[in-house]
Amino acid sequence: MRGQTIEMYVDTGSSVNVISMDIWNCMRRQGEQLKSPINQVFAYGQTTPLKIVGEIEITARYGKKTTKCTFSVTDKHYPSLLGDEACETLDIVKFHQGVYQLSSTQTTRKSIEQLTTEYESIFTGLGKLNDYQAKIELIEGAKIGHQIIRRIPHHVRQKVETEIERLMTMGVIEAVPDPTDPNLVLNPLRPVVKKDGSTRLCLAAMKLNTIVKKPKCLFPLVDDMINEMSDFHRASELDFNEAFQQIKLDMDSRNLTAFATESGTYRFTRLIYGISIAAEHVAPKSLSLKTIREATQSDETLLRVIAATANNRWTKDITQYDKIKAELAVVGGIILRESRIVIPSRLRKQVLDIAHEGHQGIVKTKALIRSKVWWPGIDAQIEERIADCIQCQTQAQTERSQPL
């Protein structure tokens, strides 16, 4: 700039360019004055603005590229900083906005049909996560104690047997080889009739969950994932349908998932609904960053929040975000509240669906969601969702003895 080489930090999260008074004095022309500052400038995570003595427009050059940049001049010796617009204009960084998708032309449809026919075994039946097995570990010395096993009500027995046959065909459950095995844990079975009339078999594993070791998982932050994706040229989405059942249980864990009906004794071979560690093993089912970013860019409220984080102008319609503005940051078009992703309104139901699959009740579902995502009113929505879930309410009921 003006014949001088200035070392600067590249900050694609900044909407302003900053130089110190020392740097300005080195390149200042005789009689040149700074313009009065228009906007306030805040350091990341701070609520008190920096003291800006003025602004100046200077032509900056990097390589063969030049551009006019407006710099905010600080009164202290802060490091010089180049914001996102200048970085992109000078080709210091490149932002790839386009994502190429397979168009549904006649040619591509034919190609897809050929692929699904040639590799039919891949596209039919239940998928499986390769080279991975979930293990249910128990707290040392803990015993599950006696459990009351209820008989299946007559009006759903046929549906339960039909579902057992289906799951055995898919390899999700198997007959217990030795029902007298002392290591076998027999759990109450809760058949849940879904809206479409089908039946889901869930274990009422309240007692088992009290002695299961809970894994301490460190999930990657959005910043880490975005950095890892910086050199990617292609991306695809994974439809993790029936996510729990795509993860195999190791052999020792299967005996912990046994249940009995009038037709026999069975155990699960795949991860199941009702086990407290299930959600931790299904972390890959999280929404893709691309999906969250696109939903954020079409969410009018979140767009106003993004603008407010840049110019610190918080309007009444985003008061709920204004209260926590010191915790907010925008990374790659996604809003973070500290390390948690702020979910756009149209994806919130989907997030609740993912977190709710384990049917763990209000406390555990809240803990799971709160550790990863946030939006205004999230607690009330979780409570409403759990209150409407028959299985969650059944799991929470106190067991009663069967009549003689």
From TrEMBL:
It is an enzyme of class 2 (transferase). Its EC number is 2.7.7.49. It comes from the Eukaryota. Residues 343-395 form the Integrase zinc-binding domain. GO terms for molecular function: RNA-directed DNA polymerase activity. This is RNA-directed DNA polymerase. The lineage of its organism: Eukaryota, Metazoa, Ecdysozoa, Arthropoda, Myriapoda.
